Each structure stands twice: as C-alpha cells, then as structure tokens.
Amino acid sequence: MESLVVDDRGIPKARYKRIGAFSRLSRRPLVNKAKLVVIIFFPLSPRLAYLVGAVYGDGSVSFRRLTYFNTDENWLVGVARELTRLTVSGRPRPQFFSPEQRGCYSIDYCNAALARLIRGSAKTRLGTISKLTDSRARLAAFLGGVFDSEGSASLYVNESHRNGTPEIAIANSNLGMLRILQRRLQRFGVVGGISLSRKPMEGLIDDRRIKWKKKVYRLRFSGWSSARRFAKIVAPWTKSREKRERLERILQNGAVGI
To answer: Last residue of some domain: 102, 122, 142?
Structure first.
C-alpha cells in the first residue's frame, strides 16, 4: 500500500477534507484515512481569540476562507501578520486587496479547517465565542479584535461636563455575542447596556442603493468607571493605532477628538 505523503505539519498533501477543532494544548493533526478527513487542532490562545473577534466584528466566513474588511490599511497589515503566525511555516498566507479591487481594503485568508470551525450556525457561533472568552486573557484579545473592527471610543466635552463624558461602543448584528461579552465584562466591574442601533433599511452610499437586512445592536459603556476598566482590559490588544490612542486617552482622562 502506498504511504501517505504529508507536509511538515503532518497534514496530507492528498485531497482530504480539513476540519478544525479547538484544543487546550498544541496537537498534531489527526488523520482518518478511511473517511479521507484530517482534523486540524487550533490551540485556544489570545491570538486566535483576537482574529476570530475581528472577523466576527466586521468580516465574513465562508466554507473555505475568512475575509476581513476595513478602511484602515495599517490595521489590516497587522491582522495579516497575526494570521501568518497562526499556522506553522506561515501557511496559508493572507491575500491583500486594495480599495480599487473591492471598494475598501480587505484580506482573504484561505483556511478551510478554521473557516469550518468558526462558521457554523448561530448557536454554534455562540458556543465558539463562549470558549474563546472564558479566560481574562482571551476575553481581552477577543474584545480587541471586535473593537478594532467595529468599535468606537469618544470623549464628549460640554459646559456641564468640562472633564468630558466617555463613550465606548461596539456595534454588531449578533445580539447573542454582545450579550455574552456584556456578561463576561460584568465580572470585571465593566457595566454596559445594549440597545438597538439600526433597523433594517435602505440607503445610498456613493450613489449606490444599499439595503441593510439585519438589525444592528450596540453595546455601550458610558460611565467613567466602566469606560476606564474596559480601556484597561482591551487597550493592550487593540492594534488599530487610532483606537488604541483613544482608549489610552480615556485612561488618562484626556480629550479624544469626536
């Protein structure tokens, strides 16, 4: 019988279906020759939590790839760097697209095992989020990814609030995810509220008619105590330079441009 040819990660070079699974420790892939399936294990790490948080924040997951969208080119370059570190030997490598190609900066990361692992149904996704946020380190990293892709931070100054009023918010259509993050953060004294931010509607963007089919919700932190605690937890994992500076200014009680 002909021996199975594998790469340096132990993954067959023949056409095997790749399935992803979480693991607490690093493990070699598990090959099932009878079913032509290889299970690739992804250690539960802050890096993985950040990358999943970022794609859940403002990205998409198909059967074979993860796609990240953003107007911040430098942030996407950082995401691409983290993606290459996620797998041994830096494979597969992310593919970068310019605004001329897709309308905004984006990254395609072809990894069928990871895509199948985190795509799933709405219920499966909530289970994935729970696993990736069950420790403080991974919660901070996951929040960093979501905040980088779909978060905002501001300090509003007026006559009645000369020292400013902070507001940190994360917008997303996945209400279940926001509720999990809300509960997780309450353990660390970070109290936030969830409200409906946008209903399904139609509008014009660059003379193109766009239809938003989903409701968008917002997890919001506005008190000084909760805003500072959120910033202290999330700032170390915020890779967007502008957003990290805003969180650091809230920590320092400095003014943040609106």
So the answer is: 122
C-alpha closest to that of 139 among 246, 245, 250, 53: 53
- Final residue before a domain boundary, out of 74, 89, 122: 122
Q: CA–CA separation, 84 vs 80, rounded Å?
A: 6
| Domain count of the fold of the chain | 2
Secondary structure (DSSP) of 18-84: EEEEEESS----EEETTTTEEEEEEE--HHHHHHHHHHHHHEEE-SSEEEEEES-HHHHHHHHHHHH
As a whole number, mean pLDDT of residues 8-20 equals 72
The pTM of this model reads: 0.86
Helices (H), the chain: 46-58, 73-86, 99-102, 112-118, 122-132, 136-150, 175-186, 224-234, 241-251
For β-strands 151-156 and 201-205, DSSP reports them as unpaired
Both tokens assigned to 223: 């008190």
* Structural domain span for residue 31: 17-122
